[in-house]
Predict the structure.
Amino acid sequence: MSGAYSGWWVAGTAQVDERSCCLERRSDRYWVWLIAVSLGGYLVLGRSFAYLGILPLKLFIGELVLAGFFLTRTRHVLGRWLTTLLYPSTLTGFSMALAAFLFYGVFLLVRGYAAGYPLLLAVQNFVFNYYPFYLFLGIWVGARRPELIRRFVVAVGLLHGLYGLALLAGLRRAVPIYIAKDVPLFGQPAGAAALLVGLLCYPAASRAYQGVLLAMNLLVLIGTQVRAEWLGFLLAFGLWTVLMRKSRILWGVIAVAVLLCLIGALSDLRLPGMEDRGGDVTVKSLVGRVVAPVDRELAEQIAGRGILATAGTYEWRKQWWRSIWSEIHRGEPAVMVFGPGYGYPLHRLHEDLGNAVLRTPHNVFFYALGYGGWVGVLLFYVLQAQLGALMLKVYRFSGQPLGLLLWVMVLAEAHFGNWFESPFGAIPTYLLLGMCAAPLVKMEGDEVARFSWA
């Protein structure tokens, strides 16, 4: 009798375990799709997608996804992080740097609150320190769907190209809907450079289709006229030709670019551009935009007086950066070393901002320095160095350079824009880098099993 009872109990337990596994696998699929859709949304819609959420509570999709995943897959975030802190792993260097970076962020949060700075603004500054946890979400997705990154790059490359071209053609003018103040429903696409690099590393099956995807996203990259994105892409493309030994392609691209520029200059060819980014694009306006921050007079001679507005944005930022540098080094050792803390009204250091609350000076160095002093700067670059070392290990392990190229690209962009301190820049970056690192991490085994209690 007892044997029959025991057999029934074991069979019942096995059925429960099988049902639980099925439910977990189903929820895993939901999470994979949710994270993939979020990644695509950030790359395609940029800042507009970042504003989806509960606006009155300042809870946006980035925080909601991270919190939901943390609560339902704790061992894959907290467990993996703690395990790689305690046991040697390919992630140990990054995890240790993240621990220091995160705890220093908490210190800056408390320091700013104690100084009487606005708590909401301090919490918004703190995202800079916890967004790197998205790397673990990317690792989780990449380990479960190794083929996803290739499919994602091609599919989102098409979507981004079509959307970007529609926006350049006047989609925002035709549908002038705003989801928040100064935040249009159809936001500026933010993934052209990343997707171009992704397509170089994971090309489409058809050469013709690959050429169409590259052409569309290259037009979007040019049409949005973001100089930081141009710089980042050029650095990544140059590194790709070196790593993959594609020097012939590099010289071929340079020759074609020079030829197209000559044709465009002689024919005064115009491409549609975004109105709030300078309007139509010509060869002269492109050259003038590049030259303007260095030599305003030469830029005016090349592209006309209207191009000086683009130089003005750079000068406007430089003025703010100088003020931040002076404020941090004005004589108080504690401020110079530890910064004033999160919530500090950094916008007041720029005389032209007035009452406008702009929390980022569009330069990651001055963001870290302005709030966290030299310790904040040091910890940020230590974190990035560990991240770069991880991507180098991935390249040496797999021969796939995408992670390393993306890291170089976004680090360059971050010094001329708001990237690591903003959700539309930081979240897709850490997700993509995590997906790139997944094969190497997976090879080491499921070390999170050590913390199965989490």
